[in-house]
Design goal:
It contains 13 helices and 13 strands. The chain has 385 residues and is of the alpha/beta class.
Length: 385
Amino acid sequence: MTMLDTQLLIATPTLGTLTETFIHRHIAGLAPGQTHVMAKRCQGELPAAATLLPYGRARNARRILTRRLTSGHGCGWTPPPAAHRRFEELLGDERPDAILFEYLDQWLDLLPAAQRSPARVVVHSHGYDHSACLRCPKQQERYRELDQADHVVVVNRVAEARLVDLGIAAEKVSVVPYGVEPNTEADDHPGAGTTLDPARINVVSIGRFGAKKSPTSTISAFAEAHRSVPDLALTMAGTGDLLEECQELAVALGVEESVTFLGPRPHGFCRTLLASADVFALHSVTDPITGDEEGLPLVILEAMAAAVPIVSTVHAGIPDAVTDGVNGYLVPEFDVASMATAFVKLAEDDALRRSMADASLARYEADFTWDRERTELLNILGLRP
């Protein structure tokens, strides 16, 4: 089989979500020119290397089905009978060599039809689907149906252990961490560097202002460190439900002059911002209400590719990428004091920052490149790199 006669069908709940760059990379980069995409809803443009397949009643309409929640945690989706029929039509019409289902909970009802086709069937986990969803006993039971797939891919060892504990055959589960492209001058975005003051020690944090990222913990830790190191500055990019609360917190803690909120910014801008950072911070936690967790935050890998030391938490797949005391510091979830101490250590020691920056880049190059992820996924999918 050559890349000219392979076909990959990728099924994803939503196409074009800003934070799901990992899915965009799968669509654009796994099998360029030979990838078809099936989605329930579309929020952006399809990568040029892929074709969007209609998934609904009208075969020639670009109709995207709306996700329907089947549990209190937003896990699972039950496709209507028309969607079942359309999926089987797609398999017959397109005859893919491999099917990649993005997220564990979204396509369970379609697994039997997929397995009846000649295609190799792989299901890919990303985060909430191996954390929040597992709080639902019904969903735990349904996950045992994943044994119908040829393989299940997870992005960290915590998720691997959970699925094996549920009864999924260990030989069917593989940890394939995300990979990212090198941070090069080609990513330069006009104006990005002007947001950081080169006379200060710049901490950068990028991510959604939501409970799972605990941005209030990052700001509180920064404020505590700022009392010891007034030259510290914090720049935060992103938006979300907690943005206004975080802005108010910065004022309440008296650090509003040293904290910059950029709002949502495009990927190229953020990569250039990381290249100018002295420290990257992300206080990931388990959402105390839903149980939602990270998989492996891509932004941490982006920071490592930019040769930046990391300050983060012992959470989900983060310890798979960050070794405490080597390429950054890891603190317990919600431990603001320890995060502040890490900021102070890095701010006060130029040699330490350089050493950890070098270690970040070396770790990225060894284990977290897109080329490495792509090769591993294509092997699992049965497609040649």
